[in-house]
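Incident log entry.

Two folding requests arrived from the same account within the same minute. Monitoring flagged them as a possible duplicate submission, but the sequences differ. Recording both here for audit purposes.

Request one:
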Amino acid sequence: MTGYGKLTGKIALVTGASRGIGRAIAQRFAAEGAVVVATARHLGRSEDEPGTLAETVALIRQHGGRAMALAADLEDPAQREQLVPQAAEAAGGLDILVNNAGMAEYSRIESMPLEVFDRTIEHYLRVPFVLSRAAIPWMRARGAGWILNLGSVTALSPSRPYNDFDHAGGATAYAAVKAAINRFTEGLAAELEADGIAVNSVAPSTAIRTPGSERYIPEGYPTEPVEYLVETALALCSVPARERTGYIAHSLHFPLAHGLDVRTLDGQGDLPPPVVPAWAHPALNQSGLCGG
């Protein structure tokens, strides 16, 4: 452990932690002292998914953090129903749930198969609902908790005149479900505020290149480093609900507005303050929030 101990004594379940944003959040939370239960579909390497839970756990332990791997296929109703109790029982409780897992599948509406639409809802709305519902009693028993949902800047309405990305289409169904998870976040935050359980959402201000997203990001597009989103995630999972709940936060805007020092994933180094590029969505205000 090499951070400031902001999450010392906390237990965090991070879904989709074998790679990309989920792995980065798991590393940063462990650096701040959390015991991380890292989950994804497979413990080891699969043919269609780079990265493994074993690699994530090894990276965390290499820097003195504590982590365990727990495989679960969240498309399987039985496995997703059991994930939270299995994680809490294995780790000794649950304080933080990060709903990160999902596989984006872009397609114009006129050509989108119904099974792709259904999978999009499954990954990005049903799974967070099921896991959040299961986590609430565990968090309530510990007197507080944090639920963090991964959002997307695509949830914001397209600006007019429409740009080439919007004309090309493909993100409409995905974006609509991400807009739904934002509203879910705000509503659940209100329901759980009296229990001391914070519910927030974090999304890139622009785009982050990961193994899951790179096929949709044009070559040469200037993506942002994942560390800014991860620092925002940490800020949303380390402050009591009475101070910070119902936030729909964005990765570059939020650290600037709140004066956050952005650190490397191992907690040992510092990154420069973020710079919000001119192409960021104009609906994002200077607080880094959209609503909240």
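Request two (distinct sequence, not a duplicate):
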Amino acid sequence: MSIQRKELGDFLSALRQKCEPAAFGFPPGLRRRTHGLRREEAAQLAQISPTWYTWIEQGREISVSSDVLDRLATALRMDKTQRAYLFELAGRRDTQPAASTHAIETPLLQRIVDDFAQPAYILDRYWDVLAWNPAAATLFGDWLHADATPNLLRFVFADPAARALVEDWETRARRLVAEFRADSRSALDDPELQARVDQLAQASPEFARHWKQHDVLERQGGVRGFNHPAQGRLALQQVTFRLVDHDQLKLVLLLGADA
């Protein structure tokens, strides 16, 4: 039995025993020999066979599909962290990750970026720019204000100003598409994402070509060069962070290269 399988079984067993039967529609009863739900009840809630559920808890080397994991997470009312842990232990990708339990307000996002003197901005899952500070506005120019919802990819591929501003535009543009594809790997069947990709492909032959190449790269730091119309050449160190409980959001900082 592998450690991962044992941990998966122990995790489900511990969580099941913390579930109050009455809260799940089962009478508490006086003859219960275990705390929480019985294995048969957990299996019933998840719509899988009791034998199959027992094998999972016993850590047997069986193939547990993402669909079964999704049903177990829903049946046992797992929160976001528990669900992610379940899929990680099972070695499966969660195709329907749990949504954040609370929304993050735009004023708070704005406060986050305003605390930085260097250019800072926040991207969502579609790379819309949700908030940016004055230093970012100075660096990138009018495009942040020209659209009700500015988008980094739309700027790079559809705005002629980006080709002049971004040093070695062709290389950076190709990397951005590969980073965006990797960033979107769990949502490639999202209709909104597909619509965004189609719009970009229609607006930019370069984006369409790079997207079809299926290159994937994690969003990496490093020096980014800019040819600013007023400040001349700038070399800035890019650092990207994901926000806790909002991993679909990315905080991007552009620091002085000697920072």
